[in-house]
Amino acid sequence: MMSKSVRASLPQRTDITMRIRRNSRSNGLLLFNRDESNGNDQFSNYHFVSLAIRDNAIEFRFSWGTDTAIIRTPASVIGVGTWHVIRAIRRRGKGKVEVDGRVVARAKASGFGLLGVTGPMFIGGVKFWEGIADKVYVRDGFDGCVSQLKINKKNLAFGKKFAKKNIGVCTEEVVAENNDILSDMQPSGMFLARSRPSARFVRSSYASFHPSTFLHDGAAEQISFRFHATNPEGLIFFHGEVIHDLEGRRASSTSNGRRRNGDFISVGLQASYLVYSFDLGGGRSSATSTFPVVDGLWHKATIVRRGSLALMWIDDHVAPTAVQSASTHNDANTPGRVYVGGAPDVRYATAGLYTSGFAGCLQDFKLTSVSTGRATELGSRYLDDADTPSLDFSSSGALERVKLRACRSEPVGLFNLVNL
Ligand SMILES: [Ca+2]
């Protein structure tokens, strides 16, 4: 994709934000813009600015011809299959790269001044690679989706300003109703991909499923889901004692503020952090995300419990948050329904741990029980649950559907490996 009317950089500063999702671990060029004021000699030492994925790291380069500054992030700051916001910033000779709002790399090049980029700006690939590949050290276009491009804090729609080549449409994504990132992007030949099971919740919403939906009879078990939260507090998942019997009556008349006496497993948001809590009979333990997850972005959570040990991964971060319960209780005795997005009486159900349900979208909610053999194989990693069906939030899958809404689908630009 190419734009002749937009420049990726001003002389004194560069500020590029791209929201991307990789389809593979391939190297790929995200953005390239060079100086063409001295003619179109491809092999000369020209000024340029580039953003690329190389060996699973992000590389932000800017060059004054003979000298090139390279700001390289650690490898694996962005994974495959999840959305990330990358921001590359330069102030004269100083540059930094942020991923999902956190600075992950910075560098200073002394003596550098103004940068001139006069040529067209390329996104996702370039028209020709001669004389470019040996500047950025990637030889392919980006394999994945780009849903947002911001240059100097100005959002650019992938509309008429861009000439497109080899670009499809990514649609297997959902966003909250207030996300209008691509409202003005109307690509021709748009197709709708299979939508993933998802539902939107409004704090008082919930869906319930048969107790057997999550059998805690394996050597390990896993909860995984994608979420986009719009409120910093709220219950996302609960499995514990019987709250309502099969006729829908509250099973116990005990008042709020009671002391809990049954086993439970819960996941929810507390002050913008994701928290996994469980009590198997010996007291409550919790694992909390190391960073806030209510930030307008989609995140993926994967939680594995093996007896009294729980591990929680957020997005593609390699290191999980771990919690080991001091108790010797390993079995979850949870005869109640499985609740997602909230519960009939959240304060009562969670004994005050939560006061309301979740607000936002949940997608691809999977509950997987792992047999002893597979758990051994699993080690300390999480399970590939590609074969686990996602919870069906429709009336054919859920026992109850209370105030469930639809998540809107989001069309986004898809790039493939074919060069522009
Ligand atoms: Ca127990």
Poorly predicted residue ranges: 172-194, 410-420
Mean pLDDT: 83
Annotated CATH architecture of the largest domain: Sandwich
**Helix count from the secondary structure assignment:** 3
Radius of gyration: 24 Å
Task: Give a short account of the largest sheet.
Answer: 8 strands, antiparallel
What is the top-level CATH class of the largest domain?
A: Mainly Beta
Q: What's the helical proportion of residues?
A: under 10%
Cofactors, ions and other ligands in the entry = calcium ion
Distance between the termini: 7 Å
Name the structural class. Answer: mainly beta
Shape: elongated
Return the domain count: 2
CATH fold-type name of the largest domain: Jelly Rolls
Give an overview of the whole structure.
With 420 residues, the protein is mostly beta strands. The protein has 2 domains: 2-179, Jelly Rolls; 205-402, Jelly Rolls (Sandwich). It contains 3 helices and 29 strands. The strands form 5 sheets. Strands 2, 7, 8, 9, 11, 12, 13 and 29 form an 8-stranded antiparallel sheet that branches. The protein has a 7-stranded antiparallel sheet with strand order 21-20-19-18-25-16-27, with no helix packed on it. A 6-stranded antiparallel sheet has the order 1-10-3-4-5-6, with no helix packed on it. Calcium ion (CA) binds next to loops.
